[in-house]
Model the fold of this input.
Amino acid sequence: MRRCATLVTLGRGLGGQAVIGDRMEDVVGAARCFVAAALLGLLAGCTVPGIRVRDLPQPTVRSSWAHAGIRDDRVAFATGFCAQLESLDPASGPCAQWLWRLPESTGHEGSVVPKPAPDRRTLVIIPGILGECVAPWVTPFSADYRALEALGYRVHVIPVKGRASSQLNARIIHEALTGLDLDDAVVVAYSKGVTDFMSAATLPEAANWRDRLGAFISVAGTANGSPAANHSAGLYQSLLRRLPFKYCQPSDGGGVQSLSYADARDVADRFAASKPGFALYSIIAVAADGPVNPVLRDFHALLARIDERNDGQVLLDDAVVPGSTVLGVFRADHWSIALPFEDSDALAMRPLSRNNHFPRGALIRAALEYVAPVARNAQGAESAPGVTTVP
Done:
């Protein structure tokens, strides 16, 4: 209890001092604000004992992936990931160090691409909770956008609100996708962006674009919520509203509540019931015995009281999209698997860059090659068009 009280005091103290801006002191303040935000995660962890009686309205069952209708493509996908790693980033070491132990066989030998690969393909990126706060510096897989454009992917980042509810962000995603060329497009959503996208895909008016998508890839997704949000949403919301981020205003303040089991599982159930016509994939991070960002470390340990198989924010079971194909379970924390803090020169990103190394370039290229490839005749990197942030 003393540790939790200390964190409360520290979180409040750091949370009221600085706004992310352009001056040096503002940048330093930004780092403090983000440390404060992560400390709030620790606060939530202080109250996470497991599943409570009050969770009965959202009952679940334990089942193998096969019995739950989840396809396991880890062995087949590992071949492509390892090949990309050897080609792009051999300095990152042997492939096996990034993968949790694979089964001998899953019965699936490779990707299934129903149509010939187009010359160009739209790639939509949806950031997660608080992603708007660091968007001036880092977005999911942002260090690889230029290379992906050169390969033939038209990269569009949807500017969802970092502290908003999934309902509000669903409207933003719907409006953005309505205006894009989505023929065989692939959506890559990270963290809460997964819940936001699933909420958007179940809107009645989403029928205008839903059938044009080719694939949806969840990366460290909050597909079924998070126990921290489930038990401490009120504390999160109260304190996060006080953080004076310049680039991510409170909006409707419902971001954390959207990750509660009650809200997130309702979205997941409606998404599964809608029987989406595009392919679904899950990429999962588990940091049980690997390096974790110091800001996430204690939170990871607290979640481990429920399940050691977590990434510091999300449990393994909660990261699987209903009805999806699991491409891999990687040795990474919630940030390192998708957010290239280590590649940013911004002072504000330094506290977030520790233990952040992961071969994200190999991962995103392998995922796209596996589920949504493009023909090998795209233009060179020197003439690749810029990345678009969808208005």
Summary: Confidence is low (pLDDT under 50) at residues 1-49, 377-384. Residues 156 and 388 are 5 Å apart (CA to CA). The beta strands are 71-72, 121-126, 153-157, 185-190, 213-219, 279-286, 325-331, 388-389. The radius of gyration is 20 Å.
